[in-house]
Amino acid sequence: MRDVLDRAAKELDRVRRLPPEKGIAVIQEALALLEAVPPGRERDGMMALAYLRLAQLKQRLGKSEEAERAFWVGFSYARTSGEVRVRRFAERLKEEFDA
């Protein structure tokens, strides 16, 4: 399980250096890995981060409805994960989606 979380974390870190289209594919791969791990604080925090980054990329590509859906899934994971930094990120991003 630890190696799956580490692999997903590396994939999520890699997203920042990719164009949006490729970044979306990498996030989807990371989400598939994370979905195989039992729920828990770390896994849920990573799920939140993945969905929130996915929302940002979809927004950049003009896919507003898909971006909003990804945002709310990520926001929900952020609130329940207990990961303070991820929750703060979600709250900042919420301001963009509420605008």
Can you walk through the features of this model?
The chain has helices spanning 2-14, 20-35, 41-60, 64-81, 84-98. With 99 residues, it is mainly alpha-helical. The chain has a single domain, classed as Serine Threonine Protein Phosphatase 5, Tetratricopeptide repeat (Alpha Horseshoe), CATH 1.25.40. The chain starts with a helix and ends with a helix. The mean pLDDT is 95.
What's the overall average pLDDT, rounded?
Answer: 95
Instruction: Tell me, briefly, the overall form.
Output: globular
Q: Which class of secondary structure composition applies to the elements?
A: mainly alpha
* Count of domain modules: 1
What is the rounded Rg? Answer: 12 Å
Q: Distance between termini?
A: 39 Å
Low-confidence stretches: none
The total strand number stands at: 0
As a percent range, the share of strand residues is under 5%
Total DSSP helices: 5
CATH topology: Serine Threonine Protein Phosphatase 5, Tetratricopeptide repeat
Please outline the helices and strands.
Blueprint: H1 2-14, H2 20-35, H3 41-60, H4 64-81, H5 84-98
In short:
This is Tetratricopeptide repeat protein. With 99 residues, this protein is mostly helical.
Labels describing this entry:
99 residues; mainly alpha; Serine Threonine Protein Phosphatase 5, Tetratricopeptide repeat; 5 helices; 83% helix; 0% strand; globular; Tetratricopeptide repeat protein
